[in-house]
């Protein structure tokens, strides 16, 4: 199965003997947000991390199956994972800005990938901060430490950093779960803006958030995808009883 967007085909992921992801196939459309939901331990984060090979950084992980983007299977040997993670960026649960200035957090990626001219870097920094709704709050302190920002601002900075290298897909692992309600709302607004340009895959425990931000939802249970459909359908008329039980709070 070759696709131009991002897709997983018969993907299984093992931690030693334990099969955490069992033969999952899912395709993600450009300019759509897909939410991955399911009870704790069902494999959402493992699946998300496999989409840009972040599981490679965990010892003892073995992956079977294919992940396609732009007609390339990223699980083939010889794939440049730095370029891969430029194409498929990641935002983590806890904001993790570099211990550098706001400016440098964003300029780092483009500079690494060859942008040298200051004017061009300045433009990228401004554009990414504007897209992340952070420009007004930071334009007078670009060279101050990113660590002096609030948690919510740091998370938006991490999103700005991820788009600075012009990815096609942004993976988000519970990006708002460590934030207060106002910061959470800002991150959700940002997701709605960003999906005009990117495909976004988001893990969330928050059913309301999944319903608010996503176009499609995949319900994971015990390492498998039980149901994958339009979010409206999943939340109003799911076809599987397990999905219904989960979204109505009967387990998980
Ligand atoms: N580094 C690891 N080593 C061994 N087993 C792991 C590791 N990470 C996750 N697992 C196991 O794999 C399964 C899936 O975990 P994963 O974190 O992907 O689930 P999740 O749905 O994201 O859970 P949560 O919602 O609690 O974050 C679980 O049984 C978990 O214990």
TrEMBL record:
GO cellular component: plasma membrane
Pfam families xrefs: ABC_tran (PF00005)
Superkingdom of origin: Bacteria
Ranges for domain ABC transporter: 6-247
InterPro entries with a match to the protein in the record: AAA+_ATPase, ABC_transporter-like_ATP-bd, ABC_transporter-like_CS, P-loop_NTPase, PstB-like
Primary location class: membrane
Presence of keyword Membrane: yes
Subcellular location: Cell inner membrane
Keywords of the record: ATP-binding, Cell membrane, Membrane, Nucleotide-binding, Phosphate transport, Translocase, Transport
GO biological process, one term: phosphate ion transmembrane transport
GO molecular function, a single term: phosphate transmembrane transporter activity
Gene3D superfamilies per record: P-loop containing nucleotide triphosphate hydrolases (3.40.50.300)
CDD domains xrefs: ABC_PstB_phosphate_transporter
Membrane topology: Peripheral membrane protein
Protein role: Part of the ABC transporter complex PstSACB involved in phosphate import. Responsible for energy coupling to the transport system.
Protein name listed in UniProt: Phosphate ABC transporter ATP-binding protein
Organism, as annotated: Paenibacillus sacheonensis
Lineage of source species: Bacteria, Bacillati, Bacillota, Bacilli, Bacillales
